Amino acid sequence: MPLRLWHLVLVLPMLLLASLAAALLLAPFVLEKDLTLVVDGQALSLRSRAGLVGQLLAEQGIELQPGDLVEPGVASLLFDGQQVRVSFARDVLLGVDGVTRILRSPLNDPLALLAGAGLALAPGDALFVNGQRFDPAWTMDPASPLTRLELRRPQPFLLQDGDNLRNLRSSARTVGEALLENGVALREGDALHPPAATSLVANMTLQVRRALPLTLHADGASRPLRLPGETVSEALAAAGVQLDGEDYSIPPGDTTLVAGMQLRVIRVHEEVVYERETLPHRTLTQADPDLELDQRRVLQQGQDGIRGLPQRVRYENGVEVSRERGEVEMLQEPRDHIIGLGSKIVLRSINTPQGPRQYWRVLRMKATSYHPGSQGNSTATATGAFLRKGVVASNPKVIPYGTEVYVEGYGVGSMEDTAAAWYVRQQPMFIDLGYSDADYQPWSKWVDVYLLTPVPYGRFPLTLPG
């Protein structure tokens, strides 16, 4: 075979292999690929002609900072269907036995992050992730980044449980969790100091005071309780029962507690009540110079007085147990009721058959009439005047003797006579119009009687009978 033919036979396969390798090398940079980009757990499906991971990140505007993690590396070739994961580094607070430092890491695996910090879980250790106690069976949610880690190693503490003293250890964060971890149960009414929510500190002392079963009778209710304390007072305080004033308990507050004890609270209330007696007020009258005659008004409103006999009453649980009497007290002084009687004289005029006359008072009176024949033919009067027309009889305590009066239909008359005492008492507001036998006219009706001037100052009453 000629030499040139042999050359072709040998060279042609090599050329074909070289062409195929070049095509394979250039394919990532030419062909469009389906890719998945996962950034801090968030997946994005996309198509790209990028050939390298770094080119894809630049294409998506992702800038890497020291500590960020990319899988595969930025220089790795991209192939169709490939997944690229980016985890940005973040600050993680790492606390170890109360000492805190900051780590910067893209890891979301608590154990891996601990290992990166040169730490590992030992038996009895407790690891808290983002505030929750870590369970190795957890699967961390990529969408919930790890931001806080706390590693607590077992801390020694002393437990005083009644008369029992125990040395214990716990990696729990609080006093309550430490007791629970050590199998120490608290029942209703047990008292723990310091409280269960207190942070556990190395070498601290915890005290548990166990409650006793008791029955509390207070404020109308009876209830079984478990209460801590050494005395009745301490148990009542633990139950939130306060003794005020003279309240007391049975047994007394300084009594030592015993299981099954009956505690009774006695509420004491005292009040002062009065047996009251009314003292009637007086009603008085007095002249009122600013008020017209025969008018009246109240100058002072009266008020009855009240006298009381105090009694201090003691109640225990609402039941009266004693009553103590005191000295009589004046609870309210009586006040006189004062009526002002008008004493101001106002002169007015009235027309009479003899012409106008001034009068100073008008009285409403029962008018009758009499004559000598009705008096056993006697013409005598109380003042000695001769009984005839113009002489009238009345109550001298109402119309003073000698006062001139005017009665319409009768005329002017002079007050000169009166009637029998029994009649005056029975009908104090009367006027008996005098006549002679020859001109007698019978009267029996109520009339207005005008008292004419002059005014008999000091000789007429301010208040009228009836």
Q: What is the compact description of this entry?
A:
The protein has 466 residues and is mainly β. Helix content is 13%, strand content 43%.
Walkthrough of the structure:
By secondary structure, the chain is mainly β. It has six helices and 31 strands. It has a six-stranded mixed β-barrel with strand order 26-30-27-29-28-31. The protein has a five-stranded mixed β-sheet with strand order 6-5-9-7-8, with no helix packed on it. The longest helix has 28 residues. The protein is elongated.
Overall mean pLDDT stands at 87
Tell me the span between the first and last alpha carbons: 177 Å
Largest sheet: 6 strands, mixed, barrel
The low-pLDDT segments are: 1-27
What would you call the structural class? mainly beta
As laid out across the biggest beta sheet, the strand order is 26-30-27-29-28-31
The helical percent reads 10-25%
What global shape is seen?
elongated
Sequence-ordered SSE layout with sheet pairings:
Blueprint: H1 3-30, E1 33-39, E2 42-48, H2 53-59, E3 69-71, E4 83-87, E5 90-96, E6 99-105, H3 110-116, E7 126-129, E8 132-133, E9 148-152, E10 155-161, E11 164-170, H4 175-181, E12 191-193, E13 205-209, E14 212-218, E15 221-227, H5 232-238, E16 248-250, E17 262-266, E18 268-279, E19 283-292, E20 296-300, E21 305-316, E22 319-325, E23 329-332, E24 337-344, E25 348-352, E26 355-370, E27 391-394, E28 404-407, E29 411-417, H6 421-426, E30 430-434, E31 444-452
Parallel strand pairs: 1-4, 5-9, 10-13, 14-17, 19-24, 26-30, 27-29
Antiparallel strand pairs: 1-2, 3-4, 5-6, 7-8, 7-9, 10-11, 12-13, 14-15, 16-17, 18-21, 20-24, 21-22, 21-23, 25-26, 26-31, 27-30, 28-29, 28-31
